[in-house]
Automatic annotation (TrEMBL):
It is a multi-pass membrane protein. It comes from the Bacteria. This is Branched-chain amino acid ABC transporter permease. It comes from Pseudomonas typographi. Keywords: Cell membrane, Membrane, Transmembrane, Transmembrane helix. InterPro entries: ABC_transp_permease (IPR001851), LivM-like (IPR043428). The chain crosses the membrane at residues 6-24, 31-53, 59-79, 86-103, 132-154, 185-206, 218-242, 263-284. Pfam families: BPD_transp_2. The lineage of its organism: Bacteria, Pseudomonadati, Pseudomonadota, Gammaproteobacteria, Pseudomonadales. The keyword Magnesium does not apply. It is found in: Cell inner membrane.
Amino acid sequence: MFDFCLHVLTLACLYGLMALALNLQAGYAGLLNFGHIAFVGVGAYAVGIGRLAGWPLPLSMLAGVACAMLLGVAVARLGRNLASDYWGIATLAVAEIVRIVVLNQSGMAGGAQGISALPGPLDALPETAQPLAFAVLGLFAVALAAWLSARLAASRFGRALRLLREQPALASCLGYDLGRLKRSATLASAAVAALAGSLLAGYTHFVSPDYLLAAQTFLVWSMLMIGGAGRVAGVLLGTVLVQGVYSFVPLARDLLGLGSETVGALRLGLIGAILLLCLLWRSAGLLPERLRTLP
């Protein structure tokens, strides 16, 4: 049971990184990125392809961050002449293109079978100590990302992103380059998401096209909407709630004798019910963002 709790904690930390990365775009800047999981997948596949090429793990992780940021530049350029809703659809299409590309690259990306036996950042430790050590690493990573995200929110750049979200015309009149703000938010989000993807691949020692399914993006979106987009504490609370439901519901299979399909439907149904309740009674999330108002 202790190992299972460590596993849940580690996954919650990794998904917390993904949610904090999405919050940089959706929470602060109001950008509707429905292809966020593409950045995570790029980071994960960089570890896998780097292993096949014989690269050391740190170099593979840096390459994943760099490739994700290049993809972020391309995604940001798509948004220059598109309204926010159309840009969101375009990002979803980009993520699906990335998934199809790796699905059909049987040589370099392993195709539908993915890439297994990946190196982890803590492989030098004894096998019995790795779960606890990875949980500590995950906690450190998400705590650092949360601290940096909070500092960014309180900075001039963070205030500019909020102005872009609330009053883009006013932001433009004040001299802000809207395209540059969107690009900067997307690049920062891509870097954090790629780091989360590389850690996820190192933790599971495996990567496959399933990492790039659109359902993964909407799972992270659920974390933001339930907890409260734009606020670090809200994002982390939403991550804990959603990941808790996602991880502990399968225990009902043994306790209640349910089938695997029923458990999967129950898990998604509970997450959907929580999201629906929040949209009806707490539309801004359980811990909504605190905005200053003029007297």
